[in-house]
Amino acid sequence: MLFNSDVFIFAFLPLTLAGFYAFREWFPHNTPARLFLLAASLGFYGWWDWSFLPLMIGSIVANFALGRLLLDRADPGPRRWILAGGIAANLAALGWFKYAMFVAANVRALAGIDLAVGTIVLPIGISFYTFTQIAFLADAFQRRVRERNFVDYALFVTFFPHLIAGPIVHHAEMMPQFAATHRRAAIANNLAVGLTIFTLGLFKKVVFADAAARYATPIFALANQGETIGFAAAWQGALAYTVQIYFDFSGYSDMAIGLARLFGIRLPLNFNSPYKSASITEFWRRWHMTLSRFLRDYLYIPLGGNRLGARRRLANVLLVMLLAGAWHGAGWTFVVWGGLHGVYLVVHQIWLRRATVGGPPTFARRLAAQALTFLAVVVAWVMFRAESLDAAMAIFGGMLGLHGAIGEQSRTQGLVVVFGLFVLSLAAPNTQEIMRRYRPAEGRNTIPPRAHRAAFTWRPTVAWSLVIGAIGAVSIANLWRTSPFLYFQF
User: Fold this and answer.
1) pLDDT band, very low/low/confident/very high, at 184 (cuts 50, 70, 90)
2) Which residue, 184, 217, 251, sits at the end of a domain?
3) 252-288 pLDDT, tens per residue?
C-alpha cells in the first residue's frame, strides 16, 4: 500500500487515525490504542501480500525473545553467543531472500554449477525491519534498552510510517514516545504539523520526482537494450535520475515523518538537502542519515573505526561502503556504486590530511567543492540506476561524448525540467527548515545556520492553509499515475 495511493490517503489513513484516537479517548490507558495501531500496521504490511506476514511476525517474536535473554543473562560469555546467533539468524534470513538468486546466478556463470534455489520473491521492507532488530539486539547486549513488553516491541518494529523504507529507528528514541501516546495535549498541533509535512512530501513525489522519471526511465531503458546513447541524452538521463531519486526519497522521508507526527510520534531526520553538500562526507551526513548512523554505530566502530591507525580506518570506510552498496540490492551495479562512494570517502580523507589550503573557506572554494561533490554523486547514481554494468557503460560512454554529440533520445524539455528541479534542490528551503518552529523530527535537527525569511516558515495561518491546500489539490490530481517509491525495492 503506497503512501501516494488513493486507498491509503482516502481509506487506510483516515480510518486508522479515527480508530487510534477513539481508542485513546475510550480507555484511560493507552494499551488498546497501541494494539489497534499494531493491528493497523500489520494490515498495512499484509495489504501487499499476506503470505509474508508470518515471516515478519516470526522475526519479531524471535528477536524479542533473544532480547529478553540478553537482558536476563549476566554471564558475558553466553550473552555474546546469543548476540552472535541472533545477528547471524537475521542476516541469514535477509541473505536468503535478497541474495540467494544473485549468488546462484554468479556461481552458475563462473563455475557452471546450477544451484537450484528457484524463484525467490523479496519480502518488502525486510532490509529495514532486519536492521532495526539487529540494532535492538546490539543495544540489548550493551543494556541500553529495557524492553519487556511484547506489544510495545512489535509496534516499534512494525509502525507503518517507517516499516517499508525507513528511517531505521532506534529503540531508545521510539519507545518513550509510544509510552506517551495517551497524552491528550497538542492533538491539533500534531494533526496540523503532520498533515502539512505529509502534503509537502506527497507533492515532491507525485509532481517533482515522477516528472523527472519521465526523462530518466526511457534513457536507461534504451541503454539496457544495448542502444547507443548520445551525449545530451546520456546527461539528460543521468541528471534526471539524480533529481528523481532526490525528490522521491525526500518526499518519502517527509511523508513518513508527517504520518508519524499525526499519531504524536517524531521519527528521526533521514534527509537534509544532500545536494548542498561541499564534500562526500557531508553528503553521507545528509543522505539516508539513519542508514549512515547504523553503519557507523554497528559496523564501522565495531570494525575498529579510526582507533587502529589511518590505513585501517580507510580500509574500514571502503568495506563499510561496499557492504552499504550490497545492502541496497543484489547486483554488481549496487556493489560498484558502494565501492565508488567508498573510494570517494577515502580520497576525501586523504585530501583532508594532506591539503595545504589554509584559512576559512571562501564562497568560491565552497562552490567549487559543491560542484565536484555533485558531479561525483551523479556519476555514482548512473551505476545505481542502471540494470547492468553494460547499461551503465553505455550511459558513461554517452556522457563522455563517445557516441556523438546529441543523439535522438534527448529532449530539450527534459533538460529544462531537470535544471529547474536541480535549482530547487539547492535554493529552496527544505521541509525541516519550513517547519523548524515545530520540531518536526526526533533528536537534534541539523538545520543550516542561515535563517530564511519569515515568509518561508510555516505557521497555522489562513495564508499557509491556502498554500498547503493548493499543493495538496495538485498532488491529489496527480494520483492517477501512482508510482512506487524507489527505496521500496530495497
Assistant:
1) low
2) 184
3) 999 999 999 999 999 999 999 999 999 999 999 999 9
C-alpha span between 353 and 349 (Å, rounded): 6
The answer to whether residue 487 sits within a structural domain is: no
Q: How many domains does the chain have?
A: 2
Longest CA span, the chain:
71
Domain span at residue 116 reads 6-184
Q: Return mean pLDDT, the chain.
A: 89
Instruction: Give domain status of residue 488, yes or no.
Output: no
- Quick: pLDDT tens for 195-229: 999 999 999 999 999 999 999 999 999 999 988 89
Query: Taking 90 as the threshold, does the pLDDT of residue 175 lie above it?
Result: no
Q: Is the same domain home to 104 and 121?
A: yes
* pLDDT reported for residue 374: 96
152 & 200 share domain: no
328 included as an active-site residue: yes
Q: What is the pLDDT of residue 183?
A: 54
State whether 130 and 31 are in the same domain: yes
Could you tell me which residue, 345 or 186, shows the higher pLDDT?
A: 345
Last residue of a domain, one of 130, 158, 184: 184
If asked whether residues 342 and 394 sit together in one domain, one would say: yes
Residues 64, 109: one domain? Answer: yes
Give the active site residue among 170, 171, 288, 328. Answer: 328
Check: pTM over 0.70? Answer yes or no.
yes
The label of the residue with cell 523479496 reads 122
Residue 490 located in a structural domain:
no
- Does 261 lie in the same domain as 162? no
User: What's the pLDDT band for 117 if we cut at 50, 70, 90?
Assistant: confident
Average pLDDT over residues 426-436: 91
Could you tell me which of 199, 256, 201, 244 has the C-alpha nearest to residue 44? Answer: 256
Q: Which of 318-327, 445-454, 463-472 has the lowest mean pLDDT?
A: 445-454
Whether 100 shows a pLDDT value over 60: the answer reads: yes
Is 276 part of any domain? yes
